[in-house]
Write a structure and sequence with these properties.
The protein is an alpha/beta fold and 914 residues long. It is built from 30 helices and 17 strands. β7 and β8 (207-210) form a beta hairpin. α18 (509-533) packs antiparallel against α29 and α29 runs antiparallel to α30 (902-912). It is elongated, with a radius of gyration of 41 Å.
């Protein structure tokens, strides 16, 4: 019942918050709709009735039995008025009232004629006005559609012919009046182009596609991954949803025309309609990343002196995609290529020559280049080991590509086909073409590849031995294992198609900039705090090691790995766990009395732990053991309270609130150590009905427990100051032991739980060790929390409170720097606050803890340096992007100035103004 009340209260709070902030969820909109559903249905049905009582809205005289679903509003037209209204809107959908309801009709059925060749007006050389009436003998629309490309039937009957036009709203049949000027008969396909209609054939066009539908198809294929078959089937549904098969199949024509259209659009966008004397070279019909450094485009001429080498270093990611397959063609020699090697795919001839000369080791002959390709020893790299798989029906089993690692833009002229699988010979060609793409070599190139460890072994040797592979002089290849490419395939379109859709996915630089600022904010403070808390000599030594590792790399990068030989043995861990945390030193006086009070609090904590570990139905022996502990603790408390009257000169220190309850989040796993459930309070605490307050929760009369309203004399104030200092020491001790225990737990996780060598030895002993350490962590965390709460009651100043922060459960996790030092996503990791306070010198005296601090400091520094470099790099990328657009604008301005034709000049001006 309580749980239901809490849930209801939470729902009420969430609902109140949404109303207060005027935020409507999807269900809120649906609820708003429900009362209006009947009214909406009524409006929809009213729209089916005869419009304007059958009177034409334009002339007011004829029968207005025709309406247009594509025009705005509801208007009725007579046949003559509807033709006037749609003279330049040939792709609207009409309906005709048949006396009972509206049925589909067409503009052609109403006598519409499309004039071509003179801007939509009749040709002045027509001897008479074309009459569409002969087309009435053809019968229904599907009879008209039955004609195929090249048919001569009804070709120019009275100057009118039939044309099937595919538009983004459906498939239409129109009566077309061609230009009758001398010589125009051979230019019908050009007349269609001028009317923004792309002919399906050049000689006798019987069908055409609007420019709009071709652009729609490209966008659908890119964003929705729509195939040509599905796209055209959608258009057939638009035309006749009930019987789409009655609409002619123009799928083959769509494939052919869209291929040509893409080629024309690419050449237009890249300026080859203006630079007619220049043919596109390799990769000239593709864009590369505007944010990456490109000499001669977005870098100044003095870039070699203005930039650090790491800033302008090329960063590439390489991978294969086995879903972009290509079937074998029946007559491959008959294939016509419109842009071989001009876009993202490599030129076919040289690439096939490279594949022919580069064979696997077992197939090598004396006349061919040996490509070293042995079975990969890497784990989980099945792509390389799958090269032996045959696909007899496939011309290409997939593609491999090189892309910009930071922004995901594919490198032009660097996408290759796979013949068997992801072989080195394929990826070598892609990588070499990518490195050579810029007209001026940059120098170092980082290659991120999931099998870089295998690929890089003989890469230089393969390049030296090949006639088809080369690298710019002075290029330094830096291989690095990594998997980044998968997320770039989908936006590029290569998950569904191969050649058409290698577009450039471009990440937001502003988003990267914000992430870099946040990364610095998250890592700078922890790094500086940790540095201040450590020994200066050690920090200077670690800085030198980090600098040398960054320069020389190789095995020196092992400094970021934990040296486990410095970790304590399990026997040492066991010994440390058995040591008492605090022990009374037997001194008399106020300090000894206060220490005894703190020790009693620790004993109360231990008794509460024992009670939490009792089963739900404890045995008599278990209850007796708790009773004995309770009696001993109660005797100590009574004795302590008797001494309190002497220490405080009889002043009452009772707080009246009882002992503070333990934080449940700092008692995790304790009830599960012996597979026991939490006992009910009345089952285990009520040992003596005459005792009001059990020993484990009895107030301890110390200055920190006194009510805030008490009037205190100098003696009590002195006691409060002494207790405050002791509480600081208690907090320091607890934090020190907490760090030790967390380090121990990291060792156990690495050596006994996560180690591959101990897969079959994760038995009871390892788990018991881990459980014991967990109890120790919880105990020290609760002890620190009690010390901090006491300091707050004692009036600790703001500086003290700032040092001793609250403990959170997430602060007590196992250090992944020990257990998963090579994990992904370390960029914003940081140590918990208590690793960075100024009392860690003692921890560093311990060999293992010093090693722990060394690794964590190095990684904290690496994270901060990484985000600092990221911010600097993003700022430069923003400038490079702007410079790239400036260069493009300048190029189009030059084309506009040099253009003779008005259309060329207008398009160049539009491109320059983007």
């Amino acid at each position: 019942m309580k749980r239901k009340t809490k849930v209801s209260s939470l729902n009420f709070k969430v609902s109140s918050f949404l109303k207060k902030n005027h935020v409507q969820a999807q269900n809120d909109f649906l609820r708003d709709y429900l009362p209006w559903r009947t009214e909406y249905l009524s409006v929809l049905l009213d729209l089916e009735q005869l419009v304007n009582n059958g009177k034409c809205n334009d002339c007011g005289e004829g029968e207005g039995l025709i309406r247009c679903l594509s025009c705005s509003g509801t208007r009725a037209w007579c046949p003559s008025c509807v033709l006037k209204a749609h003279q330049h809107n040939p792709f609207h959908n009409l309906q005709l009232w048949n006396g009972r309801f509206y049925e589909t009709t067409t503009l052609q059925a109403q006598g519409y004629i499309m004039y071509l060749g003179h801007g939509g007006e009749p040709c002045p050389n027509l001897s008479h006005q074309p009459d569409p009436s002969p087309w009435e003998d053809l019968g229904s629309m599907e009879d008209v559609f039955a004609q195929e490309e090249g048919d001569t039937i009804n070709d120019t009957q009275l100057g009118v012919s039939n044309l099937v036009i595919v538009h983004s709203t459906g498939v239409y049949s129109h009566s077309v009046s061609w230009c009758q000027c001398p010589g125009a008969e051979k230019a019908h396909h050009l007349d269609l182009m001028k009317a923004r209609l792309f002919p399906a054939s050049l000689t006798r066009p019987r069908s055409a596609f609007t420019f709009d539908v071709l652009d729609n198809f490209l966008i659908d294929a890119l964003e929705c991954k729509t195939s040509a078959m599905s796209f055209y089937q959608k258009l057939r549904r638009f035309t006749n949803n009930a019987f789409p098969d009655k609409i002619p199949d123009q799928y083959r024509e769509l494939m052919r025309v869209s291929h040509i259209w893409r080629d024309l659009v690419n050449r237009k966008r890249f300026g080859f309609g203006h630079d007619t004397e220049r043919s596109p070279g390799p990769g000239d019909l593709a864009l590369y990343c505007p944010a990456c450094p490109q000499p001669g485009i977005n870098l100044p001429t003095s870039w070699r002196y203005d930039y650090e080498e790491w800033l302008v270093m090329r960063r590439y990611v390489v991978d294969g995609n086995f879903t972009a397959q290509h079937m074998k063609m029946k007559i491959p020699e008959d294939d016509v290529s419109l842009a071989d090697g001009k876009g993202y795919m490599v030129t076919e001839g040289p690439y096939q020559a490279h594949i022919h000369d580069s064979v696997e080791e077992r197939e090598a002959s004396s006349s061919r280049l040996i490509i070293f390709l042995k079975k990969s020893t890497c784990s989980n790299h099945r792509a390389v080991n799958a090269t032996n798989i045959q696909r007899s029906n496939l011309r290409a089993t997939g593609v491999g590509a090189t892309a910009c690692a930071r922004h995901g833009c594919f490198v032009p002229h660097a996408v290759v086909d796979f013949q068997k699988g992801e072989r080195h010979m394929n990826m070598d060609y892609s990588i070499c073409n990518a490195v050579k793409y810029t007209p001026e070599p940059i120098g170092s190139t980082l290659i991120i590849y999931d099998v870089a460890c295998q690929w890089s072994i003989h890469f230089a040797e393969r390049v030296d031995q090949s006639y088809h592979l080369s690298l710019p002089e002075g290029t330094k290849i830096l291989p690095a294992p990594g998997i980044l490419m998968g997320k770039y395939w989908r936006p590029s379109g290569l998950l569904s198609t191969r050649f058409p859709l290698l577009q450039d996915p471009f990440k937001s630089l502003l988003k990267k900039y914000r992430h870099a600022l946040q990364g610095i904010s998250d890592t700078q403070g922890p790094y500086e705090e940790l540095t201040r808390s450590l020994d200066l000599d050690d920090v200077q030594e670690w800085k030198k090691a980090a600098k040398k590792a960054a320069q020389d790399c190789g095995e020196l990068l092992d400094i970021y790995q934990l040296k486990m030989d410095k970790a304590p043995s399990m026997a040492e861990i066991h010994l440390r766990l058995t040591e008492n945390e605090l022990s009374a030193n037997g001194r008399t006086g106020s300090v000894a009395w206060l220490i005894e009070g703190i020790n009693i609090e620790n004993s109360q904590d231990a008794l509460r732990l024992s009670i939490r570990q009792l089963p739900q139905d404890p045995t008599a022996s278990q209850r007796t053991g708790i009773e004995e502990k309770w009696q001993k603790l109660m005797a100590r408390i009574i004795k302590f309270h008797e001494a309190a009257e002497v220490m405080t000169n009889g002043m009452d220190l009772k707080g009246g609130e009882g002992a503070p309850l333990d934080n449940p989040e700092l008692c995790l796993e304790e009830a599960d150590i012996s597979n026991m459930e939490d006992p009910e309070e009345e089952d285990i605490l009520d040992f003596d009905g005459n005792i009001d307050s059990p020993a484990e929760v009895t107030e301890i009369w110390m200055p920190s427990w006194a009510a805030s309203g008490h009037i205190m004399d100098d003696v009590v104030l002195a006691l409060r100051q002494e207790e405050l200092e002791l509480r600081k020491g208690q907090a320091n001790d607890c934090l020190e032991k907490l760090r030790q225990a967390l380090g121990d737990r990291s060792v156990v996780f690495r050596e006994k739980i996560h180690s591959n060598k101990s897969v079959h030895h994760q038995g009871t002993r390892s788990k018991k060790e881990l459980q014991t350490i967990t109890l120790s962590i919880n105990r020290h965390a609760r002890g620190y929390s009690r010390a901090r709460a006491a300091m707050l009651h004692l009036g600790a100043d703001s500086d003290t409170v700032a040092v001793y922060q609250p403990l959170k459960p997430q602060d007590l996790v196992v250090s992944k720097e020990v257990t998963e030092e090579n994990r992904h996503g370390q960029g914003s990791d940081k140590l918990a606050w208590f690793w960075r306070i100024n009392n860690t010198e003692d921890s560093q005296k311990n060999l293992w803890m010093n090693e722990f601090y060394r690794v964590n400091w190095l990684k904290a520094k690496a994270r901060y340096d990484r985000w600092s470099e990221e911010l600097k790099l993003v700022q430069h990328e923003m400038f490079w992007t702007i410079s790239w657009f400036w260069t493009q604008e300048e190029r189009w301005r030059v084309r506009a100035d040099e253009s003779i034709k008005n259309g060329n000049r207008a398009y160049a001006e539009r491109q320059a103004s983007m």
